[in-house]
Amino acid sequence: MIGRFSRHYILPVGLMVMVTLSGCGESGNAAGEEKAVRKKRAVNVIVSPVQIRSFTNYLNLVGEVKPRRRVVVSIEANGMIERIAIEKGQWVKKNTVLAEIEDDLLQAEFREAQASLKASTLNLNNQKKLFDQKAAAESAYLDTQYLYDIAKARLTHVQARLNKTIIQAPISGVIDDRFLEEGELAIAGVAFVEIVEIDRVKIVAGVPERYLRYVQKGTEAVLNFPAYPDTIRVARVTYVGTTLDPDSRTVPIEIEISNSDNILKPEMATTIRVVKDYISETIVIPQDAVIDTDQGMVVFIVDGNMAKAMPVTLGSVSQDQVVVTEGLDVDMPLITVGHRDLVNGELVEVKEK
User: Fold this and answer.
1) Mean pLDDT of the chain
2) Which listed residue, 132, 149, 283, 290, has the most CB atoms within 10 A of its CB?
3) Distance CA 9, CA 1 (A)
4) Does residue 8 lie within any of the structural domains?
5) What is the mean predicted confidence (pLDDT) over 25-48?
6) In whole angstroms, what is the distance from residue 29 CA to residue 22 CA?
7) What is the SS3 assignment for 132-159?
8) Residue 228 domain-assigned?
9) Nearest of 245, 76, 89 to residue 162 by alpha carbon
10) Residue 129 to residues 15, 123, 141, 151, 217, Cα–Cα distance (Å)
């Protein structure tokens, strides 16, 4: 009975296996057909004709805006600050009075020195008359002359000290900072204000030693300012340092430019571009069109309705553009979009940009 059951059971199982295998065969055929369809399906790509044009390769540097001149004005006389005539941020002209220091004692000394000089002048004139009339000894006349010289020098000295109680701007510029207030006691040598000249500014940067051959005094540079993306200035290098910084291995350079509208502020970031290479006619393609393979650099072009891999030799690179020195000819349809997963000989369909 077990045997019969077994034989009876085996038969349906065999049939099931045959049915299953038959189903798998049909599924395999469908997958093969789908694979064949997919293999024949063309990949959509966008092409650009290979062209000859000029190519400029730039050296990119990072710099900062610096004032043309920065002057710290210090106190030159001791005394209380009696009056301050300026505020931070104010533009001042050269020789503008910035502040005055109390000068009562010096004024008294000045009047005393004036009186002493008048008396010495009178005595000298009298002694000269007597000496000319031979009524006075030469030594007496010379003593009077010496006293006159001393009185005159003393008056000049007091006048100079008095002048120092009036603080004036040594340059034209903007009051960038002020360190003392009215009523404070000023001591000679203490900083009072800082003035920056920003009608003209300097762009300061460091050039790595390996790029020094590209930068000389007079080299043209293109300046961009991240704070003002639409502002572009073209100027020439006005200074190249003579000493290499031992830590950064760079040489300082300066580019002086006009800032009459005062939009450029000290310490503002700047990008500097200096021409490294210029080629008037060469093949230039997007760097993204190049694929790095085990066999070297390749690009894809459209040949008929298929993608064709073209080994290329590359030259200089600038931003997203690269020079091709070998491997491409003018007007070849270069695939620029859809090329990343292509294989040589794959069907492609060119689409409009």
Assistant:
1) 87
2) 283
3) 12
4) no
5) 62
6) 11
7) HCCCCCHHHHHHHHHHHHHHHHHHHHHH
8) yes
9) 76
10) 156, 10, 9, 20, 68
Helices (H), the chain: 2-40, 104-132, 138-163
Model confidence at 54, in pLDDT bands (50, 70, 90)?
A: very high
Of 252, 278, 304, which residue is a domain's last? 278
Nearest CA-CA partner of 85 in 98, 72, 94: 98
pLDDT of residue 100 exceeding 90:
yes
Tokens 């000496």 — which residue?
A: 131
Residue bearing tokens 């001591």: 187
Q: Are residues 225 and 257 in the same domain?
A: yes
Tokens 């500014």 sit on residue: 201
In this structure, the answer to whether residues 249 and 300 fall within a common structural domain is no
R_g over Cα of the chain: 44
Question: What total of structural domains would you count in the chain?
Answer: 3
Token pair in block for residue 8: 């009876």
Domain boundary among 233, 262, 278: 278
Residue 290 is classified by DSSP as -
Q: What is the largest CA-CA distance in the chain?
A: 176
| CB proximity list for 319: less than 8 A, separation 6 or greater | 58
Nearest by Cα to 164 from 196, 185, 181, 188: 188
- Which sign, positive or negative, has the C-alpha torsion 185, 186, 190, 191? positive
pLDDT at position 40:
62
Q: Which two tokens stand for residue 214?
A: 């590209």
Cα distance between residue 73 and residue 84, in whole Å: 14
pLDDT on residue 6: 36
Give the pLDDT score at 195: 97
Q: Is 103 exposed, middle or buried (0-12, 13-18, 19+ CB in 10 A)?
A: buried
Dist. CA 328–CA 313, nearest whole Å: 9
Q: What is the pLDDT of residue 53?
A: 93
pLDDT value at residue 11: 35
Bigger pLDDT: 257 or 12? 257
> pLDDT by residue (tens digit) across 90-99?
999 999 999 9
Domain span holding position 140 = 103-164
For residues 160 and 206, membership in a common domain is answered with no
